[in-house]
Structures
1.
Amino acid sequence: MADMPTEVSWSPASWRAKPIAQDVEYPDAAHLSKVLSKLGTLPPLVTASEIERLRHQLALVQRNEAFLLHAGDCAESFDACTHENLSAKIGLILSFSLILIWGARLPVVRIGRIAGQYAKPRSSKTEKIGDREVLSFRGDNVNGLDPNDRTPDPERLLSAYFHSTATLNYVRGLLTSGFASLHHPRDWSLAHVRSPALRMEFEAIVDGLSDALDFSRTIGVESTASAAFEQGGARSTVGEVDFYTSHEGLMLEYEQALTRAFAIPRSQAQAKGAEKAFYNTSAHFLWIGDRTRQLTGAHVEYFRGIRNPIGVKVGPSMQGEELVRLLGIVDPLKEPGRVTLITRYGAGKIEDHLAGHIAAVQRSGHPVVWICDPMHGNTETSASGLKTRHFGTIIRELTACLRIHAACDSRLGGVSLEFTGEMNDAGFSVTECVGGSMELSEAELGLRYQSFCDPRLNFEQSLDVAFLVSNYFKK
Ligand code: PEP
Ligand code: MN
């Protein structure tokens, strides 16, 4: 079959022979190739053993033994690579996951949309700004937001690598220097939560956690974290947490340049029938976007050959049979934890599609992780012209998703969110999505709208979602 290339050999460059959706045309091919050669010599951002560890943990999510939180900005920008922004983002991810762990009594696998989430797919190649038609902004690793800076510049790929490196370096520092310690959750910017009810709920968890940690310390079991969760790599202890990076694998030239062959663990090598595998070392987890998931396209070709766990966005235009064929290409060995399906239908469409997709995947026997992205099918334009999302609509898709999985003898393994813990100097959160416990109105959107891409939930709205999910899974 034309879309079943599993017999055909794969190389990090084999995608080049296929049609490339969302391709970027560089005016200077020699310049691009010089940059790509340089990228090809730079060190990996993440290691093969970290990637293996994430694969193992996602297999636990698939078996309902852990929950996946995938979250961060729609797109990162080079200018937002500051210590305030990064600490706020990590603080929110940690707070969110703590609420889930406390309620659901399950480990949480945290994957940030961070340290490389620069490229954006666009519905149109050009856009009208004033009376000019200019190339669309494709993300900081391609061109500039400034309408006078829209020509794709290969140097931006190098800059993306170095901004990813700086981000990851700071995140690794935060996670190993006590910031992530469960003993100090109040450091994660709780000071800024203005809603008294939300604050009280979070404080109650923190108090309960402190008691539990004191108790563990007293009886001497502090470092006996779940053995199953810890397999497959270095151990982390209570007080430190695992954290993984991800981005949409859109710019295949960049992804290819950071793809490297490494030995795979002996236990896995047997199943794979090979000693080495190709790892994308630019992030632990990469996903294929809803606009680039064509069965015979370049992105699916590239993704089928990498050893990283991958995500696939699944929107309302995906057919059940198409989804199963796609899984046959990217997961021929039916490996638990290899594929995460990120569904994003929209609150008005989920009822028409999700149950059919679940049934098709169940029949196929592919052991996927299902997570809900209640953001991308629910973007609207407000009366003032700002792109927004309504908290109520986001919750409607999320609760429908939980209900439909339960009714189909399946289970929602996690959520994929666009959120930010960013605050202004006075400690106020961004105002990009309407509603939530802070009851943000449409009229308030303009107050602190900072996203240059999709609207994100702010700190308080994100904690609202965390409590909802946590209460659903409460044991
Ligand atoms: C995204 O996750 O930012 C995105 C563009 O999503 P999708 O491919 O689902 O539209
Ligand atoms: Mn987005």
2.
Amino acid sequence: MSRQPIVVANWKMNKLPSEAEGYIQEVAPKLAKYPNVDTVLAGQDVLLNAMVSAAKGTSVCIGAENVYWEDRGAYTGETSPAALADLGIQVVIIGHSERRNYFRETDEMVNLKTLAALRNGLMPIIAIDEAVQLESENDHAHWIVNQVVESLKGVAIADLGRVMLAYEPTAAIGSGQAMGPEITQKSLRIIRQTVADMFGQPAADQMRILYGGSVKPTNAYELLAQPDIDGVLVGDAALDAMTFIELVSLAD
Ligand code: PEP
């Protein structure tokens, strides 16, 4: 089954509103050359309004980097999924390893956020991390399977087409050292098999699963050539507009 490749830039907390617009104006006309690759730019909340305005009428899809699990209410400082949808945000990254490690997000919180995103019509990209050094292959598989199962608890099969998973081993993030393509493929196969066990093979076959962790133009092609790697989630390298375009061209 063919799944449309996707390249997601995670700007994290790196760009200013005044920089976001210029980046989008630079990439949008170039992305028109690659209609077979989906692209998402994810920014911190304070950028989202400017990003949505700059991306209007282009193929660029704008994403948030986090969301709260209630739609509205007295939750000072949190971001409502309903507000994101109302603003025109289509995608939200949930459970990034920085959120899990620095802000103590648990699997249960990731699951609540996923359900909230889906309830509000957003497409969640759920990050599956690997924060600890695991002794054996079995431990490694168990860790991944557990995160997938916990994140997707209660997701309706009808909503699954809007869910993406991103395998992001913590040690590879920001290290300059991506995981090798074969070993990454093994982990993604485990993830897809877990989705198949939960929801059936057809649902697993249609789900896009991404890899993230020091992706750059020198390693993206080999990673994307693996059968279960449908896209990449990119931090540092995607801060540069031209490098982002290069990554999209490699995914084409
Ligand atoms: C990320 O934070 O999602 C990420 C993959 O970062 P980097 O590409 O910088 O490793």
